[in-house]
Give the backbone structure.
Amino acid sequence: MGQAYEEEYWVPEHVREYLRALGFVLPLEAMEPYIRLWHEWMQACGSFYDYKDTDGVGRLYEVHRRSIHPAMRVCREWGSLLLNDKTQVVCGAQGCTDWLEGFLAQSGFMAAAQATVVKAFGMGTGAWALWVDADAGSVRIRHYDARMVIPLTWDEEGVTECAFVTRAFWRGRAVDQLQMHLKGGGTDFSAALSFSPNESAGRGGYRIVTVCFDEHGNEVAPAGVCPVYETGSPYPTFAIVKPAVDNTRVDMSPYGQSVFADAVDAIQAVDLAFDAMISEIDNGKMRVFLSDVMFDQETDGKGRKVSIPFGRQDCTVFRKVMSTEDTIQEFAPALRTDAQVRAFRCALQMLGDLTGFGLGYFDFDGAGYVKTATEVSADNSALMRNIRRHEHALEGAIAGICRAVMAASRSLGVELPDEGEVRVTFDDSIITDTSAEKRQDMVEVGVTMNAWEYRQKWYGEDEKTAKARARGLARGKASNGEDT
């Protein structure tokens, strides 16, 4: 398979050498072994799933262990719990909220963002970054996973400069595209690169520097690609996505840690139990032993008489050689599936507990998997706490990239007021009884909550709009003689 169509894409060495030549130290290299390992667990591949064993006479054979892909299941569950189409971004200015709602809907951001969260929770890190088409006057958000993200400048508060590496195609040729999101000015390509790594910090807004390389590592300049683009954004033009899990693998790393990093043994236990159940059922099939007299015979090419096989060819029918007694004999080994199911359930409970869902999330019983939101919130306080932690970390990333989108759009001529505070309203109806909470807040209106506060919370309106609409509703009720 050619380089252009590799099954997995990792930052090529010539891109790393280019960044080192600029004076950057690459934190990817310390984290890459862990990211590769977590990626393998997500795909359910590697030495645990495909290995070699020997039989009783020393012959080597390949073995494949069956899997329910527990690592990927964990990541997908977190993605679906945290982000969906009902997630809203609300600004202090209603005009910005309305514009942003249209932008996110048109670009399909939330659906793609959920996939980014899935990969970020699996490999520890993901990112969103601006992509600008200056000729068309449009801004888009691109999505990256840990394999494509290289932080360049960071401290304990976060990443302030970052590079993203992807594979692109130009005139049928594969090129490696490096985009560096850097602070400071710079009007031409050579000037943009004539700085030490931290020299540009504090010189103004963010710029995007793009460099492309062919498959041999030579720099190329595809037509229509702007080497240096000044975004006009004072905010970072990217956002790092990480689960709210401390990185205990590499100290002081800007990368995050997989949500299942400490649950690898539980993942193995789940698939060991699952594979054992399948093997038990497969090996426990009934075997039928037939006497020689049950088989017809034919002459082979050498004049010898051989029995004609019949029945299914899956090792369930056997021939008893030189036997005329017990013409048909059946053998059905006893299955141990009940004990194995208990082991499987125990492994699932441990997996749920170690990945933040609680003991009962992945468990199954007579009631099945599905529970109501009220039952989940009542039975699983650990899940509720972890969701809030992850939402808090995710809110900063979503709000940050939305601020950057609006700032870059203003520089392209879009008239937008100052957005003010940007907050994210998550849809928690999956794990909380939103209808009940909404009814409770309605009861509290006029007691502990103002009508405009209710509208601000449940309708995503800014304070000014919420107050105006609340007053309008109050006047309407008063004119109709209703109790306000």
User: Anything to note?
Assistant: The CA atoms of residues 356 and 383 lie 6 Å apart.
